[in-house]
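Bumping with the actual sequence this time:
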Amino acid sequence: MKQSLLSFAAIYALIIGASSCNSSSNAPAPIAPVTVTTAGYHQVERLARPAVKEATENFAAHALTNVVSPQSATTDSVLAQSIVNFTETVAGRSAATATTLQSVLIPDELAADLSDTTDTKAAYLGVETGGFTGSKFGGRALQDDVISLDLGAIFGPTLSALGLVPDDGKESPCLETDNVSAAVGQATDHLTPFTFPYVGAPH
């Protein structure tokens, strides 16, 4: 009996060892983070437009784009190309929709137009869409449903509604919103983790 248990343990160890070797040899090499240090700060993370990187970029590329300057499609070529690739293949949209979406979402920054003092209400993607999302000021308000706005641009008719591209007829209505209310101060705020219940009325 003791001999049988020892034999079983030896065989089990060989199987585990072999599978470990196989899995490690087939695993993709991790992307080495690139150190970016500018004007006294060290960039280790970047997430300006919520859901854009998460939706369109391979997870293995996050370590690279987290430390890259978001200023243009040249300096941020990985995310810029990921937006086009994802939009054309996974989302199934036209090439015109994909490249136009890239021009709207890159650079990966929250833009605000400080020159117009008459229209100062914050609105996510307001600058990029000429006020289509609520105002031309841009930035981001607490009430902005940023996830649904991004999903609407990727999977929905947002770009064609703006007249930026012809309607490609390839929208995916079930994916163009996160189906979570962005309202603040409603009685159900505490049930939805994607809202800001602390700035609304007590409930």
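The tokens above came from a reply further down the thread. Residues 2-26 form the longest helix (25 residues).
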